[in-house]
């Protein structure tokens, strides 16, 4: 079994998350603008509709896992897998993976592990999560500047959401693009059309989001009150 030494601790593969709460919003954005953002990766965005890509914003409370407890925010895009069929529309989305463009966290151990093991673009940031009210809220600051203040309103329960289809995540670091096998089991999943509000700050990532057309109406939002996850070994592509 493969393992990695992080800060003097051995981390065995696959890495397991035993309990996490996930809140996410999916936004339609111009495909050409999204391609410009992730051009450095060598990957191409999947098009949900002609000329439209999908930008995913999420925040996660990791309550029990191999990388300890921490908060995380993610900015990601649905992408076509390298060597895929090149299909359009729904077929494009069925094949899609998730390219992680930016992944701030609030603890050093998961930052070092994420960068070393998988090449995730983790950075330290101040991530305040308020998950106990009807609205789920994330206030994200980086370098003493507001990136965003995001609210998600949970929707209706999703039946049969215990096992979600495995999906590959993609990362890019130090000139290398990697594929990371990723699986999720969800309990307490809810979904609703739209369902998110965003206030952008003055951080460069906020500017990047504004250039993608945010804030705007989300296609849909999801919340998962209890999730378990498994992250496999990264493969260079």
Explain what this protein looks like in three dimensions.
The chain is mainly β and 237 residues long. It is built from four helices and 16 strands. 14% of the residues lie in helices and 53% in strands. 40% of the residues are buried. The model has no long low-confidence stretch (mean pLDDT 93).
Q: Briefly, what is this?
A:
The chain is mainly β and 237 residues long. The chain has helices spanning 31-38, 89-95, 108-118, 204-211; strands at 3-6, 9-12, 15-30, 52-65, 70-79, 97-105, 122-124, 126-130, 136-142, 145-152, 156-157, 167-173, 176-193, 196-200, 220-231, 235-236. The mean pLDDT is 93.
Keywords summarizing the entry:
mainly beta, four-stranded antiparallel β-sheet, 237 residues, seven-stranded mixed beta barrel, 53% strand
End-to-end Cα distance, whole Å, is 22 Å
How are helices and strands ordered from N to C? Answer: EEEHEEHEHEEEEEEEEHEE
What would you call the structural class? Answer: mainly beta
Average pLDDT number: 93
Break the fold down into its secondary structure elements and pairings:
Layout: E1 3-6, E2 9-12, E3 15-30, H1 31-38, E4 52-65, E5 70-79, H2 89-95, E6 97-105, H3 108-118, E7 122-124, E8 126-130, E9 136-142, E10 145-152, E11 156-157, E12 167-173, E13 176-193, E14 196-200, H4 204-211, E15 220-231, E16 235-236
Parallel strand pairs: 6-7, 6-12
Antiparallel strand pairs: 1-2, 3-4, 3-15, 4-5, 5-6, 8-9, 9-10, 10-14, 11-13, 12-13, 13-15, 13-16
């Amino acid at each position: 079994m493969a393992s990695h030494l992080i800060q003097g601790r051995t981390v065995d593969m696959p890495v397991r998350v035993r309990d996490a709460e996930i809140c996410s919003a999916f936004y339609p954005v111009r495909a050409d603008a999204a391609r410009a953002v992730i051009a450095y990766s060598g990957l191409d965005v999947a098009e949900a509709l002609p000329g439209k890509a999908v930008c995913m914003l999420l925040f996660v409370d990791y309550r029990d896992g191999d990388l300890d407890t921490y908060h995380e925010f993610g900015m990601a895009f649905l992408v076509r897998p390298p060597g895929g069929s090149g299909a359009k529309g729904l077929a494009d989305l069925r094949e899609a993976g998730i390219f992680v463009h930016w992944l701030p966290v609030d603890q050093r151990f998961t930052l070092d592990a994420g960068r070393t093991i998988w090449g995730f673009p983790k950075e330290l940031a101040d991530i305040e999560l308020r998950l106990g009210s009807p609205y789920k809220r994330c206030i994200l600051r980086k370098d003493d500047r507001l990136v965003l203040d995001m609210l998600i309103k949970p929707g209706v329960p999703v039946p049969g959401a215990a096992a979600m289809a495995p999906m590959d995540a993609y990362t890019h670091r130090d000139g290398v693009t990697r594929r990371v096998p990723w699986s999720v089991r969800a309990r307490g999943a809810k979904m609703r059309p739209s369902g998110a509000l965003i206030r952008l700050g003055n951080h460069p990532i906020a500017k990047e989001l504004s250039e993608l057309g945010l804030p705007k109406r989300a296609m849909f939002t999801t919340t998962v009150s209890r999730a378990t996850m498994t992250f496999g070994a990264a493969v260079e592509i």
